[in-house]
Design brief:
Elements: H1 3-10, E1 14-18, H2 27-37, E2 43-47, E3 53-54, E4 57-58, E5 72-75, H3 79-92, E6 96-99, H4 110-122, E7 126-128, E8 134-137, E9 142-145, E10 153-160, H5 163-176, E11 180-185, H6 194-203, E12 209-214, H7 220-229, E13 234-238, H8 252-256, H9 259-270, E14 272-275, H10 278-290, E15 299-303, H11 306-318, H12 328-334, E16 348-349, H13 356-368, E17 374-380, H14 387-401, E18 408-413, H15 416-427, E19 432-433, H16 436-455, H17 468-480, H18 488-497, E20 505-508, H19 511-521, E21 525-530, E22 543-547, H20 550-567, E23 575-580, E24 586-595, E25 599-606, H21 611-614, E26 617-621, H22 626-635, H23 639-643, H24 653-669, E27 674-684, E28 691-693, E29 696-700
Parallel strand pairs: 1-2, 1-5, 5-6, 6-7, 10-11, 10-12, 12-13, 13-14, 15-16, 15-17, 17-18, 18-19
Antiparallel strand pairs: 3-4, 8-9, 8-11, 20-23, 21-22, 21-23, 24-25, 24-27, 25-26, 27-28, 27-29
Helix pairs in contact: 3-4, 6-7, 7-9, 10-16, 11-16, 13-14, 14-15, 17-18, 19-20, 22-24
The structure holds adenosine-5'-diphosphate and magnesium ion.
Residues 680, 695 line the site of magnesium ion.
Domain ATP-grasp: 492-528
Keywords: ATP-binding, Ligase, Nucleotide-binding
Organism: Anaerolinea thermophila
Length: 703
Amino acid sequence: MDLKVMNGLLTPKSVAIIGASSTPGKIGHTVVKNLIESEYEGSIYPVNLKADEILGIKCYASISDIPGEVDAAILTIPAKFVLDSIKECGEKGVKGLIVITSGFSEVGEKELEEELVEIAHSYGMRILGPNIVGVLSNSDKFNGSFAPFLPLKGNSSLVSQSGALLIGIDAATFMRGVGFDKLISIGNMSDVSFADTIEWLDQDDKTKCISLYIEGFKEGRRVIEVSQKATKPIIGLKSGISAHGAAAAASHTGSLAGAAKIYEAAFKQAGIIWADDLNNLFDRTLALSLQPPMKGDNLLIITNGGGVGVLATDAAEKFGIPLKFAPEDVQAELKKHMPVFGSAKNPVDLTGMAGTEWYGDSVKYAIQHPWVDGLVVLYCETAMTDPLEIAKGIKNAIVESGVTDKPVTISYVGGEKSEEAMRWLVESGIPAYGAPDLAINAIAALREFALNKENNKIKTVDTKGIDKQKALAVIEKARANGRDALTEIEAKQVFEAYQLPVTHSKVATSEDEAVKLAKEIGFPVVMKIVSPQILHKSDAGGVKVNIKDEEGVRSAYQLILQNAKNYKADADIHGILVQEMAPMGTEVILGSVNDATFGPTVMFGLGGIFVEVLKDVTFRVAPFSKKQALEMISEIKGAPILQGVRGELPRDVDALADAICKYAFMMLDLADEVSESDANPVLVYEKGEGLKVVDARVILKKK
Ligand code: ADP
Ligand code: MG
């Protein structure tokens, strides 16, 4: 990232408005007016062929006439004039182009947009947009947009792919009391993308939290990389998670991959905190921009009412920070600040009699206690207490405690007075919400932030013994045959090259050969059809398991051949696979798609016939660490099955995690060649006994 250029684009010291207009209501007029009204202190240069001045500011006929330097040019002229104009900008030495103008890729004018980027880059300029609202920055008093005013002041900055939503959010900041320093509209993302803005905002000292509204990343992998490196919390709201639908795919994975799950996985790996909806984006942004991360799991709740306490307890479990009872010494001390009928467990119930002092004393004590990692304070408005006084008591207690590295969030349930108290709290730097579950959800975001930072320290995969050349040779041979699907035995050779344990097998082209191979391998054996046109072998009656003797081999050989011919008369049959029969184990599936946004992405789930119905699967973008593979194994609903249920011993989860990592690495390493693959099933054995891939499928990229 060229910091000087990005600064010129996003915090310019001088701007030209190309297409500035004297006509109120035109975007070119609104932008000039906004710059004046936001009290922008840099130089403003309206560019207009005819006008001498606009809103009292001297106009220039062309950008080259401007006497001083120009950091950023804001373009509001029609699309057809943009290319000529930006050449002039380039000659002038402009650093960044804020292209408000629409009429590019969003209406199918892809080439025009590509030309725009090409010209800009040839002059070393960066482009924001096109098709955007502009850039707003409180700390620069810069409203370089056609949104009506700067947002409520705050610590966080928002990047939005939707312009209209950005304008709505701008106004909503005042209603919700959630402030922002910058609002950046990135529209078509022809050049500056989410990754660029994340990188830039992470070094912007006015931004404490990075908020994203995402319709789709253009460069998913880079977003993951820059987000992992970022030091600030990043929160994302992804829309369009339902529309993706199933991709037409030859493997199971394609139809199981949904945008929602892949984005969820990518967020996890990137360390981007998930926002469920727009409300949640506001709520969590508020907490992330005001409070420190929660560095452990010990959450303490202090309340004056049992009802909100129970609601908060439920929410704590739901959002991943289940409550534990406070240790004895904490309970004993807190008991001093409540009537005898109060409770010092967790939630700590000070009862409806709690006033400012009880709240203050218990908050101060609790936040200082080493056991406590985070605090949620709940208050129900009562006739005897004043909401604002309570708020001030809580704030004072936190200040007096001297503790600044533990988060606190608050919930008030009440009327106008409570609303007023909550506004006061937020202005004082403590996030406050109108319901207990919201306060819990907010502190859970701070917990997620801390966990993300820990997870990101872990590095990836052991590549010892991997033989890429061997895999490529198998692929080349299939390609030379004009195929883009590998047979099971070929796919397993590829898997083997990546150290994945597969069942031993050989291809027979006659009944006698099959008998010979079966004897070599040892009974019982499995026999399967080998044909590039029959990828789902059982569907064609092409699999026979548990064949115990020579006679069985002979009859299976004939039967499988016959079945295959009945299924697909013109199928090209390479022979019959004779394979070692793997002992019974727990069936799991590994799959991978080459996702359009994130590239090779791995799926894991329980196998067997239910996988497509239950969709109990989870994803990660390849590659990833063993820790993340273990996380995948534990996060599916069927996880207990692998941990051992009903007297069964636990499965070899460790070997499974290793295999998932190696499989992910394989998909990444072969990304240029392989479009999708799966291992279905993989049989997982008891702890220490490993696993076996009994079926493998690899589909090549079309070349
Ligand atoms: P397909 O998925 O193409 O129909 P598979 O090779 O997966 O064919 O075989 C179908 C089923 O037969 C598997 O799901 C598994 O239960 C069983 N099976 C296949 N190969 C073996 C083997 N080598 N050992 C034990 N069971 C096997
Ligand atoms: Mg199979």
